[in-house]
Structure prediction request, 293 residues.
Amino acid sequence: TELSAYKMSSWEVMNNGKKEKINLSIHSDDDQSVIDNFAKQVQKMVLEEKAVFGELPAYDYGEYTFLDDEYPTNSGDGMEHRNSTCIVHSNAKVAGNELDMLGTYSHEYFHSWNVKRIRPKSLEPFNFEHADMSSELWFAEGFTQYYGELVLQRAGYKDLDGYCRILGGMLNYVLNSPGSKKYSPVKMSDLSVYTDAGVSIDRTNYLHIFTTYYYYGAVTALALDFRLRDDYHLSLDDYMQAVWKKFGKPYIPYTNDGLENVLGEVTKDTAFANNFFRQYIYGTAKNNYTNLL
Prediction:
């Protein structure tokens, strides 16, 4: 629920023969025409993400809503939910900041598949009485980070040079991070309760031992995407669709082992899946990005 002087723009998307309504509700110092124009950009992003999975989720009550507040004194954040996402930016207004805002929108909207429905078993059911540790955030957040940038490039909002600079930044961070040399994506996922405000008062040496699972998972997704393209004439989209059908759509919580099994099924190569997870998910080996790129 939001009580504000909001401006709304809505549209419908056909999904498996039914209409899903998407709402854009923004509280900002903008004219309605600015919001309507931004809604067209968001609509294009929504369709690109739908194309990744082949369908939208079936939203409760047939609606999904972006709730956005744009104001200079905000502390920026995005928080996904099953049928909505709450976004706050520190922009003075929407006009002139649309492309920057779309980065948050694309990431959070991808979560309506990946994490709200493709859900780690470690978070089922969520426990509000203690810190919940999840070993799958490299996938839940990291693969979402990868697609958040990729869908904007596919939609035409990022040129190839700009997109590659983003990939280069994530790669440089991960490959040169002291944490990634000693700890796997799974172990970095476990540390989220100490580094992502879960237990923010606990001091750790995380600057030297932590590599964020957002970027660690994103560059792992990049490598897997290229490996699937090079060796199996597939893409990461095929893998995400298979994970969606196996776990997300029937709402069956997954484990890391389950993700590995689906990779073996998609490639028809269980040895590849086992080796990839052993080296790059449970282990600290790094893919040969020079060759892949």
Summary: The chain has 14 helices and five strands. The radius of gyration is 19 Å. Residues 205 and 214 are 19 Å apart (CA to CA). Residues 32-53 form the longest helix (22 residues).
